[in-house]
Amino acid sequence: MALLAVQLSAFLAVAVLRASAGPVAPPLPVDPNSQGVWGAAVYATVYYNLRSGDKYIYKVTAVLDVQVQIDGGIKYTMDVELGRTRCENGKTPDLESCVLFTAPGEARSLKCHFVVLSDPLLEKRRILDSSCQPVSE
Questions:
Q1: Fewer CB in 10 Å around end: N or C, the chain?
Q2: Is 2 contained in some domain?
Q3: How far apart are CA 105 and CA 21, in angstroms?
Q4: What is the per-residue pLDDT for 133?
């Protein structure tokens, strides 16, 4: 029942925002472990993997910082740590089943900044910004 109330609130907030121009509230910190944050982080990671050119895919290992703003949808601005997995790019649809590399030379981490706009009404997301840098081991 509580989940339904949250979804209805998000639905109504987005419906109202569609009629307004520009952001209606400043960015706010949000729980990095929330379902919406992880959904946006995984979506951005899949986007990164499709464009990376790396033989192996990366998956989210930590959400380091995240803020949410209502701006034509729910805009997640986040810093995320990604770890390189043993799953080959383009061959594994489920990131969660992929095991991280641990051996020196194979294990790699990235710190990424993603901005994801989520539209709960249409059940769509899109990337507004994406950048990743290697983390020194």
A1: N
A2: no
A3: 49
A4: 97
The token duo for 52 is 């990376």
> Within a domain: residue 68?
yes
The letter for the amino acid at 124 is: K
For residue 82, the enclosing domain spans 29-134
In a domain, 24, yes or no: no
Q: How many residues does the chain have?
A: 137
Based on the structure, what is the number of domains in the chain?
A: 1
Consecutive 10-residue runs of the chain (137 residues): their mean pLDDT?
A: 39 47 79 94 96 94 96 94 94 84 92 96 93 89
Stated as kind and residue range, the H or E segment containing 42 is: helix 35-52
Q: How far apart are CA 50 and CA 131, in angstroms?
A: 14
The predicted pLDDT at position 136 comes to: 79
Q: Tell me, what amino acid is at 126?
A: R
Q: Let me know if residue 104 belongs to a domain.
A: yes
Question: How far, in Å, are 18, 19, 96, 105 from residue 55 at the CA level?
Answer: 40, 44, 18, 14
**6-11 contacts: CB < 8 A, separation 24 or more?**
7/120, 10/74, 10/120, 11/120, 11/121
